[in-house]
Amino acid sequence: MPGSKKFAVIGLDCAAPELVFDQWRDELPCLRSLTDQGLWGKLRSVSPPITVPAWSCMMSGKDPGQLGIYGFRNRKDYSYNGMTIANAAAVREPRVWDVLSQAGKKVIVLFVPGTYPPSPVNGAMVGCFMTPSAQSAYAYPAEIKTEIEARFGPYRMDVENFRSEDKDRILQGIYEMTEQHFAIARHLLSRIDWDFFMMVEMGTDRIHHAFWKFHDRTHRLFQPGNRYENAIRDYYRFIDGKIAELLPALGDETGVFVVSDHGAKKMEGGVCVNEWLRQEGYLVLQQPLDGPTPISKARVDWGRTTAWGEGGYYSRIFMNVKGREPQGIIDPSNYEAARNELKAKIEAMPDDQGRPLGNRVFKPQDIYQAVRGVAPDLIVYFGNLSWRSVGTLGLGSVYTFENDTGPDDANHAENGIFLLREKNGHRGRELQGKQLFDISATILDRFGLPQPVGAQGRPMERS
Questions:
Q1: What are phi and psi of 316, to 5 degrees?
Q2: DSSP string spanning 5-19?
């Protein structure tokens, strides 16, 4: 019966299909075995393909617009500097573990982005990388924290300052974090009764951002024979072994997903979005800058500014609309024309060599089922995510090859991975066209439960 089956999800943040299914397929025996036993393929992420909100989209079946979460940081209102971090309190739609808890199923949810602060569930939850410190109340019920610390020491929620040149420290931190996370998972699986288990490991994301230039021969900074050339490959082999150690604790009868929320790709450089807006006359300053300055600290002449942007792996463009922003100057009747003009100009932007940059620009209303919260007016993928957005002003150029938040070699790609093993499964069948929302749809289908109202996605086929 579908309602009696256990299900588990092992999440590898940012795991890239090109590495798992192609380049290192034969070096990852556990993942190769899961591929050979079941269904597998690329998993299309949401727009934007970033950790926050992608995991919450995957587990709720709702897109970023429906959630009202467009990135790690979001506008909390229509003021110019009012930003808030999208932690668990920002997610107001039920996720899989909420639906299962309500149905009386027992759950274990570990390290899933968007779960700090932890919420009450029918089981146990340990919060994600957004946990401020090991002293925070990161577990539900509270005694789980005491148990973790007694057995495994202080909780390693993330790798501190992973955007730095201290590569040996970062590499050690990634391994120690991953080792602890899988040990915690095995321990709690052995001690707590469960129907649904999920964990997400952030190490795959952190190692991509810190070490991509050392591994990718097409990266402009790649140097053959460098000491970190195999760092990412070796870590993939390590985590493959950790998954192999975890599978016996899940049991042969359990359906198992291995998934990622997005992929990875080399970062060519950065586009200084606010510097471009300034040069094009959309952003006006009250006085010249003395040097590199975040947009939040620049003296912007809002009475003459049409638009400004946020930095990150993609860019969010906000327009200064009369009656909406405090000093708005765009008449609402001209808003759509002004937005179309700005969209067209960004799409036509050249790169640093004068060649087409290949930007993609989206209106939230065109890509989401609903648009809640304070959405950006435009969402921009510079170079189709081969370039990041740099929000800092005063760098002296629209183009930069230094990241304003620290060294970072990789951007996010739109396709992640999925592998689905079920008993009497499909034996190595690749599926095309699967998307993030299909994961939650499949899990609820296997438990015989309906999707929440408004949820997207379709269950993957049964054995």
A1: -115, 125
A2: --EEEEEETT--HII
pTM: 0.96
Contact 443, 7 (CB under 8 A): yes
CB contact at 8 A, 205 and 411: no
Q: Could you tell me which residues come within 8 angstroms of residue 322 by beta carbon, excluding any fewer than 6 positions away?
A: 328, 329, 330, 331, 332
CB 94 within 8 A of CB 452: yes
Q: Are 8 and 198 in contact (CB under 8 A)?
A: yes
| Residue pair 440/59 in contact by the 8 Å Cβ criterion | yes
Residue 139 backbone phi and psi in degrees, to 5: -130, 150
What class has domain 2-266+412-446?
alpha beta
Residue 33's alpha-carbon distances to 84, 240, 307, in angstroms, are 42, 11, 51
Per DSSP, helices labelled H in 192-334 are: 203-215, 231-250, 273-279
The span from the CA of 437 to the CA of 62, in Å, is 7
Look at residues 361, 272, 310 and name the one whose alpha carbon lies nearest to residue 318: 310
Q: Where are the domains of the chain?
A: 2-266+412-446, 269-407
Phi, psi at 412, each rounded to 5°: -95, 145
Beta bridge partners of 265: 411
Kindly report the number of other CB atoms within 10 A of residue 60's CB atom.
Answer: 28
Q: Provide the residue-wise pLDDT of the chain in tens; the chain has 463 residues.
A: 344 489 999 999 999 999 999 999 999 999 999 999 999 999 999 999 999 999 999 999 999 999 999 999 999 999 998 999 999 999 999 999 999 999 999 999 999 999 999 999 999 999 999 999 999 999 999 999 999 999 999 999 999 988 888 999 999 999 999 999 999 999 999 999 999 999 999 999 999 999 999 999 999 999 999 999 999 999 999 999 999 999 999 999 999 999 999 999 999 999 999 999 999 999 999 999 989 999 999 999 999 999 999 999 999 999 999 999 999 999 999 999 999 999 999 999 999 999 999 999 999 999 999 999 999 999 999 999 999 999 999 998 999 998 777 788 999 999 999 999 998 777 899 999 999 999 999 999 999 999 999 999 999 988 6
List of residues 6+ apart from 92 with CB closer than 8 A:
67, 68
Residue 364 bridge partners (DSSP): none
- Residue 385's nearest CA partner among 251, 271, 272 is 271
- Selection from 87, 27, 50, 28 nearest residue 412 by Cα: 50
In 3D space, the residue among 326, 109, 300 whose CA is nearest the CA of residue 196 turns out to be 109
